[in-house]
Amino acid sequence: MLKTWVVNMDWNPHRLAFIKEQLEKFGIPFERFSGIVGEDYFKKGGKELRKVFSPVRSLIALRKRMSAGQLGDTLSHNAIYHKMVEENVPVALIFEDDSVLAPEFPEALKAIEKVLDPAKPQVYVLNTWGIDVEALPPGIHRAKKAWCTDGYVITLAGAKLMLEKNEPVVAVCDSWKRFVRWWGLELNIVKPAVVRQADDIFESDIPKEMKLDNWFVRQVLWFVDFILIKLTGR
């Protein structure tokens, strides 16, 4: 059984009960991780904020401003990666507390366990939201992008890569494409998806992303990001 964590904010016991009921149904024990409040760091500002977040570097990398909710979410997932390193957990299953698990979830997890390699930086995303998978047959497939952290499997090597390249935080935790493109993260998706976000049950705590709409500015930032990656490695 994979070590399992659930990210849950202290003020959301109803969400914890929601995911707990589902995991117990599948016989999956888990450890609750108390979610980090990104707004607290934005309020502190200054050195306290810069210890965990690179605002200018993030704006360049994402071509958008990261919200407090996105920062908190990313800090929470990074903290779990640290736990993996400290406890030498070879592979972990990570959920957010508003995830809905499909009946086929156990079969998909067994299929992943057969092919994963803890020595490689791998991620298996269980939600295919926003990805065109219509032409793909059922099964596990390599992917170049994905935007979901509702439910995923990550290897210890993958966790170490995420920490190396995203501390202080530059990218949102579900910006998998960035880590695939530049640093060789092996991203996999499962079809059909066996996890989805419960938008119909809970309202998202994370505001919509604040994109920079000027095309020219976005292109300039992309070029600057490319140069900084080549110079600094992140």
Provide an overview of this structure:
The chain is of the alpha/beta class and 234 residues long. It has helices spanning 13-25, 38-44, 46-52, 55-62, 68-87, 105-115, 156-165, 176-183, 215-232; strands at 3-8, 31-34, 64-65, 91-96, 99-101, 122-125, 139-143, 151-155, 186-191, 195-197, 210-211. It contains nine helices and eleven strands. A seven-stranded mixed beta sheet has the order 2-1-4-8-6-9-7, sandwiched between helices. Helix 2 crosses helix 5 (68-87), helix 4 crosses helix 9 and helix 5 crosses helix 7. The radius of gyration is 17 Å and the shape is globular.
Helical stretch tally? 9
What portion of residues is helical? 40-55%
End-to-end span in angstroms?
34 Å
- The general outline is globular
Q: Catalogue the unreliable spans.
A: none
Structural class: alpha/beta
Short characterization:
This protein is of the alpha/beta class.
Set down the secondary structure blueprint.
Elements: E1 3-8, H1 13-25, E2 31-34, H2 38-44, H3 46-52, H4 55-62, E3 64-65, H5 68-87, E4 91-96, E5 99-101, H6 105-115, E6 122-125, E7 139-143, E8 151-155, H7 156-165, H8 176-183, E9 186-191, E10 195-197, E11 210-211, H9 215-232
Parallel strand pairs: 1-2, 1-4, 6-9
Antiparallel strand pairs: 3-11, 4-8, 5-10, 6-8, 7-9
Helix pairs in contact: 2-3, 2-5, 4-9, 5-7
